[in-house]
Specification:
By secondary structure, the protein is of the alpha+beta class. Helices cover 17% and strands 35% of the residues. The chain has a 5-stranded antiparallel β-sheet. The relative contact order is 0.10.
């Protein structure tokens, strides 16, 4: 039996979804939602039968309810109403959702929760005066119960959710670009521009593609593997003509599903890899020290790990080598006094 009386027939206060804090989060959400809208439209005139999984956490100073809608890229249209100590989540279609344990898991904020008979709404009776804040992230709906005295910005999305949104937005944009090429009849052949840059402290291999690409970088002992989801011929002549210190061997394995490049490096050689603009960069570091202040500035500008700004990539389970400490010279003992 529901312990809270029904709402009086007066306009209910509707709280809009809160914006995620930070410009980066807002930008990622905007791009992700815009890209995913093209593939998440339901069929018109048909009621969907939805299912949502429930997760709850008691965070520091507030409670959080997370609804994850299965087999969807976006959550369905919904509204949030709060009146007389009751919060109503109402969706456009029937939702299969289990809220029986909600009160036990969010006891400081919720006394009872139930699903309405028509299956489109969830009513939550509050245990105290709270502010309800909602955030959307793909197929997830975050509902935060904040104390009435809460000050400042609302809690942000979890970092792993933001990262997942960024990856999905990037993948959606690549798919949209490929679809535009296909629609216009343009078929672009993948081309790879391979360049070698040499400095006293490291050698840089730059891989530039004419199309959007995915890359995976890994290390297993002295073997470093770089995989691309696109394939194109590559010429290692610059390496054959002038060998690279610390590099024992390199070979490429082109295949229809993608290009694999394997570097074999000398024991103890540090290697790093990262995306840069429309390409990917692999640096093979040399075991030398900066010989001058000018060289140290060059290392810093190019992101050399010796400058403290580089991004070092090691294999799983390994520990990134710490910066070498200067060796202190033993103090010279003072000459003994003459007798």
């Amino acid at each position: 039996m529901f312990l809270v009386s029904p709402f009086p027939p007066r306009p209910a206060r509707v709280r809009a979804s809160a914006r995620c804090t930070g410009a980066r989060t807002r930008a990622l959400l905007g791009v992700a939602l815009a890209a995913l809208m093209t593939i998440a439209q339901p069929l018109p005139g048909r009621a969907e039968k939805l299912t949502a999984d429930v997760a709850t956490t008691l965070e520091k100073g507030y409670g959080r309810l997370v609804l994850t809608f299965r087999d969807r890229n976006l959550i369905p249209p919904y509204s949030v109403k709060q009146n007389n100590g009751v919060v109503v989540l109402e969706f456009s279609d029937e939702v299969g959702i289990d809220v029986d344990q909600l009160a036990a898991r969010l006891a400081p904020y919720v006394t009872v929760a139930r699903r309405d008979p028509e299956g489109k709404s969830v009513r939550i009776a509050l245990a105290r005066q709270v502010r309800v804040n909602t955030m959307e992230a793909g197929e997830k709906l975050f509902v935060d119960f904040l104390p009435a005295k809460w000050t400042g910005a609302p809690p942000p999305l979890p970092p792993e959710v933001i990262d997942a949104l960024a990856k999905r937005a990037e993948a959606a944009m690549r798919a949209a670009r490929d679809a535009e090429f296909a629609k216009s009849g343009i078929h672009m052949q993948p081309k790879l521009d391979f360049r070698v840059g040499r400095l006293p402290t490291f050698t840089r291999f730059a891989f530039g593609w004419n199309l959007p690409f995915d890359a995976a970088f890994s290390r297993d002992g002295d073997r470093v593997t770089l995989r691309f989801n696109r394939s194109a011929p590559i010429d290692f002549a610059p390496i054959d003509v002038e060998p690279v210190a610390g590099l024992v061997d390199v070979f490429a394995d082109p295949a229809p599903e993608g290009l694999k490049i394997v570097f074999t490096v000398a024991p103890g050689t540090d290697v790093r890899g990262f995306r840069e603009r429309d390409g990917y960069v692999v640096d093979v570091l040399h075991a030398t020290d900066a010989a001058s202040a000018g060289e140290a500035m060059t290392r810093q500008a190019l992101g050399d790990p010796a400058s403290g700004r580089g991004r070092l990539i090691v294999s799983a389970g390994e520990v990134a080598p710490a910066a070498a400490k200067p060796v202190e010279k033993p103090a010279t003992p003072a000459p003994a006094a003459a007798p």
